[in-house]
Amino acid sequence: MSPLATTLLESGETTTAEAVLFWTLGPIMVLAALGLLFAKKAVHAALAVVVVMISLAFLYVAQDAVFLGVVQVVVYTGAVMMLFLFVLMLVGVDSSDSLVETIRGQRWIGLVAGIGLGAVLVGVVGRATYGKPFGLSGEAVDNNPTGVAHIIFGEYVFAFEVVGALLVTAALGALVLTHRQRLTPRVGQKERADARVAAGATLTPLPAPGVYARHNAMDVPALGPDGQPLESSVPRVLRIRGQEADAEEFAARTERVLAGASSVRGVRGNPPPKASPEGAPVNAPELGAAVTDTGQDGPSTGAGGVVGQEDRT
């Protein structure tokens, strides 16, 4: 048994050495605890916790609980806090952490819980201070490690295992968050283009709706080089709603326009018709076959008499 604990047990008074040790470590522990609460960076908070734990270890040794003091330094300071710092190094902490309250009322709940914990601590410290002081008996000194082991692995074995699982979970979470190996290859523009070619998808933009310059409506399909309507030129929404115009009707009109234009330009191998003399009427007989209002033999005209425009009914 240490001299401090022996003197405390026999006389019931605190020695000068113990008082100096307590009043030296006490303010340091309080300042470190406040630093833990008000530190803006997690690393600084962890260092403050280390200071508190080492100070507690000194107080345990002064109370003749040498085993508990060594465990405090080795387990908490050397293992738990180093694991905490290891997780911080892997994950990284942004200095501009958000201070927005994510859970409504959590600050008030924390304040009430802190006041309650402070009241409990004041009661415990007051009872220990004003009660009859006593140290460790001879049997307690000899069986101190055995008693601590019985409490940890007997009465509190479930809580001990839960704490161990939480520490392992923190380490595994840090490894998962910092793992940068990709399970699949990175897909870029070249890989996407190769995939579209392999799938036979259309690489060029879809044709615009409308049959040449005669119609520019969205529901009118465009015609391909072979004169067939292209369904892909009409928006997919209109096709699903069934609002697509009849492509065969517009294809037939286009064929009549092309046939009339060919008759005006002349057949291949024959010279084109001569231009009408100045002052000749517009509805000349040689142009009547190409320009009519009915659209049977040539391009139809609209209300303004412009070729290529017609009134849609």
Q: Supply the number of structural domains.
A: 2
Number of helices: 12
CATH A-level architecture of the largest domain: Up-down Bundle
Question: Could you say what the CATH topology of the largest domain is called?
Answer: Four Helix Bundle (Hemerythrin (Met), subunit A)
The CATH homologous superfamily of the largest domain is called: NADH-ubiquinone/plastoquinone oxidoreductase chain 6, subunit NuoJ
Overall residue-averaged pLDDT value: 69
Low-confidence stretches: 4-9, 275-313
Strand content: under 5%
Q: What is the 3D form? A: rod-shaped
Order of strands in the sheet with most strands: 1-2
H-E order? HHHHHHHHHEEHHH
Helical amount: 55-70%
The biggest sheet amounts to: 2 strands, antiparallel
The number of strands is 2
Terminal CA distance reads 111 Å
Q: Specify the structural class.
A: mainly alpha
Task: Give a structural overview.
It contains twelve helices and two strands. Helix 2 (16-38) packs antiparallel against helix 3 (42-62), helix 3 packs antiparallel against helix 4 (66-91) and helix 4 packs parallel to helix 8 (157-178). The termini are far apart. The chain is rod-shaped. The protein folds into two domains: 3-93 and 111-178, Four Helix Bundle (Hemerythrin (Met), subunit A); 206-267 and 294-300, no CATH class. 58% of the residues lie in helices and 1% in strands.
